[in-house]
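Re: that backbone. Tokens:
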């Protein structure tokens, strides 16, 4: 008998495993790598929505928690994960400069938006109106994290690398069984895979396909993240991630020529040097209709829980949401109502 069975090992699953480990709870993880969004993510943590110069949802509460979380994982796994890099927003006009400085005067945004106008000194970038700098930003190497954490669990014999079979899950009054595993509770942290989950498929998880390119640009020599119509994210050795696209109808993990063209067209509006495409990846973000996570207990079954719906901000949200779920299960602390799945109880009753 273990305390928890966790299905899925992306950012959500890892964050919940760490919460359990912190409190001495026993667990086993089942994961089949079918959902790729954590593996192919750009990995940025950034408290500001740069399209509108707004503070992201709960950014104040999430940022410090996330930074401490990845720092502790670096120590535990013996790998470098959290790279402190500034994010620069290219201004398209004097009007955008003015909007930036107006936003920087707002109390909640003051800690995160620099009031210093940065001029462009990189000949490979087109930025005649300069940049605004977002503070307290960085990039988490999510691919390295998932690989290292999977290895850590495999060594401890806590990870079953296989596809979860719902027909083999049996629930009872005191817990549940899955094959030869007995557990008090099960937590589904499967990203877009939730659509195939008969316990939670009533939830409005839409899924948004995102595609990223990796380019090699030896002349660019940029160590900061640059944001215009797309992001340029430096990852070392003259390599840069370019992204991302947002498509709502296509629901597979295959890269497309249309997205490639879209990314390159946007990139070339502000990049002015030669480059070579070295990789192109795609994944489905677990996005929700109301843009809030899906966290909580099944409406009827007491031992079944969900941790999902982080969209494109999983790096920041996952430690916060995992903590909320743990506190709810173990201590009865109410989940933030904005992300508690009880907000969709009417949808469940209609099924």
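Recovered sequence:
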């Amino acid at each position: 008998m273990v305390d928890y069975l966790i299905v899925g090992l992306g950012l959500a699953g890892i964050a919940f495993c760490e919460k359990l480990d912190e409190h001495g709870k026993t667990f086993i993880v089942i994961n089949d790598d079918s959902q790729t969004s954590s593996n192919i993510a750009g990995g940025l943590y950034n408290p500001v929505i740069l399209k509108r110069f707004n503070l992201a949802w709960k950014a104040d509460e999430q940022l410090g928690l996330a930074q401490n979380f990845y720092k502790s994982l670096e120590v535990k796994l013996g790998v470098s994960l959290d790279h402190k890099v500034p994010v620069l927003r290219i201004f398209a006009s004097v009007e955008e400069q003015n909007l930036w400085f107006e936003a920087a005067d707002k109390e909640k945004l003051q800690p995160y938006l620099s009031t210093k106008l940065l001029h462009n000194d990189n000949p490979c970038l087109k930025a005649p109106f300069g940049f605004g700098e977002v503070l307290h930003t960085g990039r988490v190497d999510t691919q390295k994290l998932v690989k290292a954490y999977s290895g850590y669990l495999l060594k401890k014999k806590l990870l079953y690398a296989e596809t979860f079979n719902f027909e083999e899950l049996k629930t009872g009054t005191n817990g549940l069984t899955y094959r030869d595993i007995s557990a008090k509770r099960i937590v589904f942290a499967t990203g877009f895979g939730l659509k195939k989950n008969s316990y939670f498929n009533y939830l409005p998880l839409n899924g948004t396909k995102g595609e990223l390119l990796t380019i090699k640009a030896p002349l660019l020599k940029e160590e900061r993240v640059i944001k215009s119509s797309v992001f340029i994210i430096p990852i070392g050795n003259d390599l840069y991630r370019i992204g991302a696209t947002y498509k709502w109808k296509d629901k597979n993990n295959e890269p497309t020529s249309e997205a490639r063209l879209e990314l390159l067209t946007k990139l070339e509006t502000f990049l002015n040097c030669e480059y070579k495409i070295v990789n192109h990846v795609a994944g489905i973000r677990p996005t929700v209709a109301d843009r809030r996570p899906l966290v909580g207990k099944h409406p009827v079954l007491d031992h079944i829980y969900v941790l999902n719906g982080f969209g494109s901000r999983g790096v920041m949200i996952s430690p916060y949401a995992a903590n909320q779920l743990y506190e709810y299960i173990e201590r009865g602390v109410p989940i933030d109502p904005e992300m508690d799945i009880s907000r969709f109880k009417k949808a469940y009753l209609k099924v």
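The helical segments are 11-22, 37-40, 59-77, 94-104, 142-155, 257-267, 314-331, 345-350. Residues 2-40+143-205+289-350 form a domain with the FAD/NAD(P)-binding domain fold (CATH 3.50.50.60).
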